[in-house]
Specification:
This protein is mainly alpha-helical and 553 residues long. It is built from 16 helices and 12 strands. Strand 10 and strand 11 form a beta hairpin. Helix 4 packs across helix 16, helix 9 runs antiparallel to helix 13 and helix 11 crosses helix 13.
Length: 553
């Protein structure tokens, strides 16, 4: 606050940092930003706070915070729920504060509008989204090699899949001992000791990418849907009397407008011989995209604890038959449920009356057997390896930090220019739509990580002995209104609540209760060339810089 010389009045000044799209940042600002970012990547949190102050968080802390919430066995506490947008906004804010702690002349974190690459590919200006200038030594580093269409690995040299050039060339992956905190033994990790998901046995010492040249990113159509449409992008049905419900919007934006920003550069491939029997049988039953992490959370499969002296193709997951008392019917049922989209209740009810089919699915998946005939070259589930951008430790990939600001921008666009949200309340009983807890799984709750007693909860189909369902507060932790970031799961949380974070992002709120970052503009001019127009493109002036909606007038 400043008082005028005559003492007659006071002025309160608010300072805003303007976020720009990556391609709008000039070379000088880009160099300063990447220099500061590299300090974060090369300096531990403890050391950095001694040098740069309390707002500094190094890569060790930033990766640990994302990994802790994402890789727990009872549920995903960063994704697949209403808290997704808020949790990632908090992490992004910590990174932005760290950048300014290193260099105060770097004013704001740029954001990445991937609809630009998608439009360029559609118009024939690029052959691949990875031909963009962002995937070069200017920003994220170049892609050196691509997975081919047969999902096999052309080369096993781990350097071929590392970041090839630029500031982050041959960036090393973090190991469990590199994590932030006084004791890291409790952290989830893979069988090679890396801060990667337990279901991702990637043994490369480098931050890796396994993309396809034909990969896609969120498009103009998908962004327009979340910005201006009043219909559900998945099925065309109106969500709430013609309006998006805000909580559903905050969950659903994580899929079509976001997911491929991690999965496309990260990539996924099968290493070693495939379980062809299971693949054929699942295809026969129209079961596709069975997620191993979902089966891991359901305790159907486990992964080796230590494969430090074992090749990746030999570090194989296995079915936890003892957990399910060798009940192949129940295991087959969980495999059916582990598809990307949980089948409808009526379809699941039909499956429960087909025990022989379920047993055949479990036998094929767990043993590579059909009609009790063992397959000679393959037993058990396939070995999938994913790149780091797709992993629970994905915040180590430099591209990560420019993704989620674009989603906050999309939320602000929706509030300022899109159809209004009919209901802006935080849901009480449906905060984690996709965590396989009670609100989406009609048969049982997710299981508690450390339970040792026998289950006392009746199940419509099957409850594994020795495991008890976790309560709603635990399963949906991270997605509740008062959830914060997990620094250690489940007992230590830091930072603002989800509700406070969404309020800080809301441009309708007063400046002193708003994040000090605003967006340069909300235009999507390039989308006009692919037939998608946004209201913001025709505004004069184009859009306000202030978070106050009054300036829209």
């Amino acid at each position: 606050e400043y008082e005028l010389k005559d003492g007659s009045s006071k002025l309160k000044l608010f300072v805003y940092y303007i976020r720009r799209e990556l391609r709008e940042v000039d070379d000088e600002d880009r160099e300063r930003f990447l220099t500061a970012m590299n300090v974060i990547y090369q300096t531990s949190t403890d050391q950095g706070q001694r040098i740069y102050g309390e707002h500094f968080y190094g890569l060790d802390a930033l990766v640990t915070l994302h990994h802790v919430g994402s890789a727990q066995r009872d549920s995903d506490h960063m994704h697949q729920g209403v808290g997704f947008l808020a949790q990632h906004a908090k992490l992004t804010e910590l990174f932005e504060l760290s950048i300014r702690a290193v260099d105060k002349s770097v004013l704001a974190l740029p954001y990445w509008d991937s609809t630009i690459e998608e439009a360029q590919v559609s118009l024939g200006h690029l052959d691949s989204v990875f031909d963009s200038e962002l995937w070069s030594d200017k920003w994220f580093g170049s892609i050196n090699m691509y997975i081919n269409d047969s999902e096999t690995l052309p080369s096993f040299d781990s350097k071929n899949w590392a970041i090839h050039d630029g500031v982050f060339a041959y960036l090393k992956a973090l190991r469990i001992e590199d994590a932030y905190g006084p004791s890291t033994r409790w952290l989830p990790h893979n069988a090679y000791g890396f801060l990667r998901a337990p279901w991702n046995n990637n043994a490369s010492p480098y931050v890796t990418r396994y993309p396809r040249r034909t990969a896609h990113l969120p498009s103009c159509q998908q962004h327009w849907t979340y910005a201006e449409s009043s219909t559900d992008i998945r099925g065309g049905n109106e969500w709430t009397n013609g309006h998006f419900d805000k909580a559903k919007w905050m969950y659903d934006v994580s899929t079509k407008a976001h997911g491929s920003l991690h999965s496309s550069p990260g990539g996924l491939f099968t290493i070693g011989p495939k379980n062809t029997i299971a693949a054929k049988l699942l295809a026969y039953y129209n079961i596709s995209n069975v997620k191993q992490h979902t089966l891991w959370r359901a305790r159907v499969i486990d992964f080796p604890q230590n494969c430090s002296n074992v090749a990746m193709e030999m570090c194989t997951p296995y079915c936890a038959l003892d957990t399910y008392s060798h009940n192949l019917t129940a295991i087959g049922y969980e495999i059916v449920k582990a598809q990307v989209t949980l089948p409808a209740p009526a379809l699941l009810a039909d499956w429960r009356h087909r025990p022989k089919d379920l047993q055949a699915i479990a036998t094929a998946y767990c043993f590579g057997m059909a009609n009790n005939t063992e397959i000679a070259d393959r037993r058990g589930p396939d070995v999938f390896i994913s790149g780091d951008a797709k992993d629970s430790g994905g915040s180590i990939d430099p591209s990560f930090w420019f993704i989620h600001g674009a989603l906050s921008r999309l939320l602000q666009y929706r509030i300022l220019l899109g159809p209004s949200f009919k209901d802006e309340s935080w849901p009480i009983n449906q905060s984690c739509f996709g965590s396989r807890s009670a609100d989406v799984d009609p048969d049982r709750l997710a299981f508690s990580l450390n339970s040792t007693s026998h289950s006392t909860v009746s199940s419509a189909f099957f409850s594994p002995p020795g495991l008890v369902p976790c309560d709603f507060q635990s399963c949906c932790g991270g997605h509740l209104e008062d959830s914060r970031l997990y620094a250690r799961y489940p007992d230590i949380q830091i930072g603002p609540t989800n509700a406070d974070t969404i309020r800080y992002l809301d441009p309708r709120h007063a400046p002193d209760s708003h994040y000090p970052t605003i967006y340069h503009h909300f235009r999507f001019m390039h989308c006009q060339q692919v037939g998608i127009d946004f209201k913001a493109n025709s505004l004069d002036p184009p859009l306000p810089l202030s978070p106050s909606t009054a300036l829209l007038a």
